[in-house]
């Protein structure tokens, strides 16, 4: 555990001493800010129309503003995650520092967990910006906070699972651009897999659609905490980290 | 301390290390010598648990590199060919990180880092980014990293590559000062380095162990016989070279006399003794008793360079000799 923390601190430090963290935070802040503004304006238009037509119940903020925003955040995350993970192993392999890590009295799994946790914390900081934006809503209205919490929990799980896959891909190459590109491709595929369900209802299509990370995020964005989705994300995280461990071990044998 | 038995390492197509066995005693400095691509780095990587051996075993402080890797890693300090540095970290932060990684407790860590910085002469750059350091400084930070946790065994892969002559001397001094407490294996393809800092040499070529011995023994073994250079002059100014040669050849135990150099009234001979005979005293007596002046008498050592070339070129020259013989036969 101590070793995990040592690696974790070092990785987090190197995110924040290099421009990577700030760049990612800035990208997310700008894009999410735009989405937030648009969603809010759209919501205001809708409530204005509703009032002009003679009222009725006020439109639900959670359903009309926060839910689409959380989905947006998960999609932006999909684009940023490759940039978080691509350097984790590729850089060590390129610069030779992998020899330091692998000849230190530290288990491979401890290194992997440390790196993954550091990436997860950076990802948390990024979606923290989304939380900051959404918290503004509390100043002017009364959104229900529990679904929001569930939504962020979902974001975290989804991020964790894509980060685990990203680390795995990063172990396979010395080249950060290849690692980033491949991770992006995989993330994108995992996102669009659920489109299959739009034109095919066979068992295969269901299996493929089930693998889509977005299908499983939808309940979270609604504020539904479904064990099936939690299990899906957790097993994806486990699977990703397991593959990473195998791949790191095979580095020794392939060399 | 280090025990290697029948070690082989095969990459996909090439056999990088082929059945190497050797032992290193505690506190020794051993030079690992070989031309580029001989398998030095591979052997070191096996010893540091970075690569698993294909067959054979290697033990460090009694721990097997395959079975007890974690224990082995605790006992070694390793400086790879390219120092494993993070360019975006400051030297002190980097060493602190490595210290934690090696399991040093936080209480002595700060002091230990400063100690090591002083020892490797990098105190003046301890707050600089590693990326901004020159090659020599980086190499020394790499060395600092390797000795940080005071390991029993130090494995240094070409520790002086890329340093300027002054730094090379300083690094050698540093390495020598580390011997005693530490067992050190250092690889190099620079021969003088081994002669300067190592007690024992292991020479490998094309993955095979060619020779393993102390520097002194290796020199003697290859030479077998003693060779002496003598400078002789005649006091009256007329030196009869033929007479001198004849006299020298009569000395018991002398196998060969070669005239190396002649100046006005003195000449230099190189005398080779028979296997295992020492002829210096007799030669000196013979010269003096014959009325000549003995200006100089010194043993001619064989340099490691010669040994190295002899050993690594053994196969080639063997073939060359055969060819020569054939030519002779035809002629």
Strand content of chain A: under 5%
Reading the helices and strands of chain A in chain order gives HHHHHHHHHHH
Give the helix tally of chain A: 11
How much helical structure, as a percent, in the residues of chain B? 25-40%
The N- to C-terminal Cα distance of chain A equals: 28 Å
Principal-axes geometry of chain A comes out as globular
What percent strand of chain B? 25-35%
The sequence of SSEs of chain B as H and E is EEEHEEHEHHHEHEHEEHEHEEHEHH
Largest interface: chains, residues each: A-B, 24 and 31 residues
Main sheet characteristics of chain A: none
Overall SS class of chain B: alpha/beta
If classified by CATH, what would the architecture of the largest domain in chain B be?
A: 3-Layer(aba) Sandwich
Mean pLDDT of chain B: 82
Distance between the termini of chain B: 56 Å
Q: Number of folding domains of chain A?
A: 1
Dominant shape of chain B:
elongated
How is the secondary structure organized here?
The complex is a heterodimer of chains A (255) and B (331).
Chain A: H1 2-17, H2 19-52, H3 61-85, H4 87-95, H5 98-102, H6 108-140, H7 145-170, H8 176-192, H9 203-210, H10 213-222, H11 227-254
Chain B: E1 2-10, E2 15-24, E3 29-33, H1 40-47, E4 55-60, E5 63-64, H2 69-75, E6 76-79, H3 91-101, H4 106-119, H5 135-147, E7 153-157, H6 165-178, E8 183-188, H7 191-197, E9 200-205, E10 208-214, H8 215-223, E11 227-233, H9 241-250, E12 254-263, E13 266-273, H10 280-289, E14 293-299, H11 304-312, H12 314-330
Parallel strand pairs in B: 3-8, 3-9, 6-7, 7-8
Antiparallel strand pairs in B: 1-2, 1-4, 4-5, 9-10, 11-13, 11-14, 12-13
Helix pairs in contact in B: 3-4, 4-5
């Amino acid at each position: 555990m101590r070793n995990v923390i040592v690696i974790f601190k070092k990785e987090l430090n190197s995110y924040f001493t290099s421009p990577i963290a700030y760049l990612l935070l800035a990208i997310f802040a700008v894009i999410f800010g735009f989405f937030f503004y648009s969603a809010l304006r759209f919501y205001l238009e809708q409530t204005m129309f509703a009032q002009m037509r003679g009222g009725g119940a006020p439109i639900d903020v959670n359903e009309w503003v926060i839910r689409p925003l959380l989905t947006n955040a998960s999609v932006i995350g999909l684009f940023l995650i490759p940039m978080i993970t691509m350097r984790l192993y590729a850089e060590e392999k390129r610069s030779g520092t992998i020899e330091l890590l692998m000849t230190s009295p530290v288990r491979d799994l401890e290194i992997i967990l440390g790196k993954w946790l550091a990436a997860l914390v950076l990802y948390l900081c990024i979606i923290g910006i989304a939380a900051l934006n959404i918290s503004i809503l509390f100043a002017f209205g009364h959104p229900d906070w529990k679904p929001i919490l569930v939504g962020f929990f979902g974001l975290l799980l989804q991020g964790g699972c894509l980060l685990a896959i990203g680390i795995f891909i990063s172990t396979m190459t010395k080249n950060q651009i290849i690692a980033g590109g491949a991770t992006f491709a995989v993330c994108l595929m995992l996102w669009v897999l659920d489109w299959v369900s739009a034109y095919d209802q066979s068992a295969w299509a269901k299996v493929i659609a089930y693998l889509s990370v977005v299908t499983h995020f939808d309940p979270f964005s609604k504020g539904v905490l479904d064990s099936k989705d939690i299990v899906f994300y957790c097993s994806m995280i486990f699977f990703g980290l397991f593959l990473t461990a195998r791949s790191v071990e095979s580095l020794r044998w392939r060399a | 301390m280090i025990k290697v038995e029948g070690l082989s390492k095969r990459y996909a197509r090439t056999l990088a290390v082929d059945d190497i066995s050797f032992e290193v005693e505690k506190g020794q400095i051993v030079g690992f010598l070989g031309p580029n691509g001989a398998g030095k780095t591979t052997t070191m990587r096996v010893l540091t648990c970075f690569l698993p051996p294909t067959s054979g075993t290697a033990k460090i402080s009694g721990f097997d590199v395959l079975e007890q890797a974690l224990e082995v890693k605790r006992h070694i300090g390793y400086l790879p060919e390219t120092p494993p540095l993070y360019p975006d970290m400051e030297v002190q932060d980097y060493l602190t990180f490595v210290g934690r990684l090696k399991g040093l407790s936080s209480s002595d860590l700060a002091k230990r880092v400063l100690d090591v910085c002083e020892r490797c002469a990098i105190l003046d750059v301890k707050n600089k980014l590693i990326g901004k350091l020159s090659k020599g400084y980086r190499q020394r930070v790499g060395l600092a990293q390797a000795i940080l946790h005071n390991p029993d065994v130090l494995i240094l892969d070409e520790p002086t590559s890329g340093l300027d002559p002054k730094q090379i001397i300083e690094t050698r001094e540093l390495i020598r000062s580390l011997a005693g407490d530490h067992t050190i294996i250092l690889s190099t393809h620079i021969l003088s380095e081994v002669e300067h800092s190592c007690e024992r040499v292991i020479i490998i070529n094309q993955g095979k162990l060619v020779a393993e011995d102390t520097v002194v023994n290796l020199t003697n073994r290859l030479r077998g016989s003693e060779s002496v250079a003598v400078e002789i002059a005649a006091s009256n100014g007329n030196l009869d070279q033929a007479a001198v040669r004849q006299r020298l050849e009569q000395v018991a135990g002398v196998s060969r006399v070669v005239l190396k150099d002649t100046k006005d009234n003195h000449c230099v001979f190189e005398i080779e003794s028979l296997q295992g005979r020492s002829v210096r005293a007799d030669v000196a007596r013979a010269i003096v008793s014959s009325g000549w002046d003995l200006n100089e008498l010194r043993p001619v050592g064989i340099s490691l360079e010669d040994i190295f070339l002899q050993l690594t070129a053994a196969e080639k020259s063997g073939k060359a000799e055969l060819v020569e013989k054939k030519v002779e036969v035809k002629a």
